[in-house]
Amino acid sequence: MAPVLVNSIGDKKTATESTTSLDSDGIPPLGVPAEEKRFWFQRGKGFDAEAIATQPSVFDDPQTAEKYQPRDDWENLHRLDPKARWTWAEEYAIVRKIDFRIMIWACVMFMSLELDRANLTQALTDNFLGDLHLTTNDYNLGNTVFKLAFLIAELPSQLVSKWMGPDRWIPSQMVLWSIVAGGQFWLSGRTSFLVTRALLAILQGGFIPDVILYLSYFYKHHELSIRLGFFWTMMSVADILCGLLAAGFLQMRGVLGYAGWRWLFLLEAIITLVVGLFSFVLMPAGPCQTASWFRGKDGWFTPREETIIVNRVIREDPSKSDMHNRQPITPRLLWKCLKDFDLWPLYIIGLVFQIPATPEQQYLTLSLRQMNFNTLTSNLLSIPYTALHIITMLALTYTAEIFGELTFISLVGQIWILPFLIYLNVADTAHASRWVIWAVTTLLLAYPNAHPIQVGWNSRNSNTVRARTVSAACYNMFVQAGGIIASNIYRADDAPLYRRGNKQLLAILVMNIVLYCLTKAYYVLRNRHRDRKWNSMTSDEKLHYLSTTTDEGNKRLDFRFEH
User: Contact, 328 vs 158, CB < 8 A?
Assistant: First the structure.
C-alpha cells in the first residue's frame, strides 16, 4: 500500500479534470485518482485515454519527497523524475509491452518448472511404483522429501538471487534442475528416487519468489496480483500439457527396452533445458537495463517508456527503491525481516489453505487407476479439473482487485471445497459409481485457489524490497510446509477410501475459515490503531516524524495494511 500523504490533495474535481500537485507552483498537473480504470471492461464511453495518468504521491511535495529519495546506487535513479507526466493511453500501452516482453516469458519458465515437478503424478499411471518396487508410503515420503528440500532451499535461493540478480540466478536454476530431472531416466530404486527428489527440490526452491520479486520491478501492486493470477494459471496449463505429453510419452514403454515413465522424465527435462538457456538472454536485469547483444543495443524500451515505467511504479510504492537489484541481504536484515510479526497471519494462512485439496490432487491419477481406468484415460481424466481451475482462479483474482477485498474473496476457495469434502465423508464411496467419484473429485479440485491473491497481498504488506524478498520466500516456505503435512494425510493403512484422512481434511478446512476471519480482524485493528496515532498529529509533526523516524517498511505510521 502507498504511504499516507501528509497533506490532502485538495477538493476532488470532476473525472475529466486534473488536480494540481501539493507544491503547485510551476509543476504540471496530476491525474485524478478516481480516473484510473484498472481493467479493460471498466473503460466505457466516458473514459478519456488522453487524460493525465500520473497519480499523486509523496514525491509531489518537496518536504516529503526528500524523505523518500531513492538511494544513490539505485539502478533506475537516472529515470526518476517527479515532474514526469503521461497519459492513460501511454501507460496502458507500456503495460501491454511489459506483458509481452517480460510476463509471457515468466509464464513459460513457470510452465517448465511445473513440467519437471508434476510429471511424477503422470509417471504413476505407467507402473512407476511397481517398476521401482515402491509402496504408496514410499511415494508419500518422496513427496515429503521434495517439499522439505524445496522449503529449505527457498530462503537461501532468494538471498542468492538478491545478490546475483534474478536475471542471472533464475536461468542458472533452470539449467541445473533440468539436468537432475533428466537424470531420473536412470532411477533404480527407493534410494535414487529419494535422492533425485531432494536434489530437484533444492534446485527449484526459491524459483517462484525469485520470479515474483523480479516482476515487482515492472508492475504496480494491483497489476502484479492479476499477473500472478495468470502466472499460476500457467501452472494449470502446464498440468494440462503434462497430461497430454504423458499420454504420448508413456506410450514409448518398451522403446530401447525402457519404461515409458523414463522417457517422460528425460524428454520433459530437455524442454526445460532449452527454456533455461533462452532465459539467459530473455531476462533483462530491470526496466532500464534491457540493452544487450540479443535484445538490441537500444534495448526494449525507449527513454520515454523507461521514465514512465520507473515513475509510475515508484510513485505508487517508494519502498521499491530502497535497495538496488544486485544488493545482498545481510544476516541482520534477514533476522529483522523474519521476526516481522505483522506478516505472520499470512504465513499461517499459507501453511494451511491448500491442505484440504492437496491429497486428492496427489492421488487422483493413482485413484483412477485403482478404479480400473487405463493409463491413457487416467491421464486424460486429470485434465478437466485443471481447465476449470484456470477459470475459477482467474475469476477470483479479478474479483479481489475489482472490489478491493482480499481476505473474504480468498476465503471463497475454502467455502467451495466444503460440500465436496462433506460428501467424501458421509457418502458410501466404496459402492458409488466411479464416474460420480471422479466428478466430485474434479469439482473439488476446480476450487478457486487464492494463492495469486495471497502472494500479492504478502508483497503489498511487506513495504520494502528486502522485506519483500524475505517474506516472499517465507510465505512460500510455509506453503511447502503445508504440502508436507498434506502429503502425509492419506496413508497406506487408510487406503483405498481414506476415511480417516478425509475427516482430518474437513477439520482443517473448518479451521481455515476461522483463520481467514481472524486475519481480517487483525489487519483492521492494526490500521485503526495507526489511524488514531497519525490523525492526531499536525502536518508539522508528521513531517518531523518522516525526518527523524527509525521505523521502516510496514512499521511506519504512514503505512496501512491491505486486507
Answer: no
Residues whose CB is less than 8 angstroms from the CB of residue 226 and which lie 6 or more positions away in sequence, other chains included: 397, 398, 401
Phi, psi at residue 124, to the nearest 5°?
-60, -30
Q: Is the pLDDT of residue 15 over 50?
A: no
Q: How far apart are the first and last CA of the chain?
A: 10
What is the per-residue burial (b if ≥16 Cβ within 10 Å, else e) of 111-123? bbbbbbbbbbbbb
Residue 1: name the closest of 320, 437, 321 by CA.
320
Place of cell 497471519: 345
Question: Closest Cα partner for 250 from 150, 382, 133, 108?
Answer: 382
Q: Could you read off the pLDDT of 268-305 as tens digits, one per residue?
A: 999 999 999 999 999 998 888 888 888 888 889 999 99
The DSSP H or E segment spanning 178 is: helix 166-183
Q: What is the Cα–Cα distance from 377 to 247, expressed in whole angstroms? A: 9
202 grid coordinates: 533444492
Distance CA(20)–CA(191), nearest Å, equals 68
Which residue has cell 481414506?
A: 498
**What residues have CB less than 8 Å from 95, skipping those under 6 apart?**
219, 223
Cis peptide leading into residue 496 (ω within 30°): yes
Residue position matching grid coordinates 516456505? 477
Q: C-alpha grid cell for residue 131?
A: 517398476
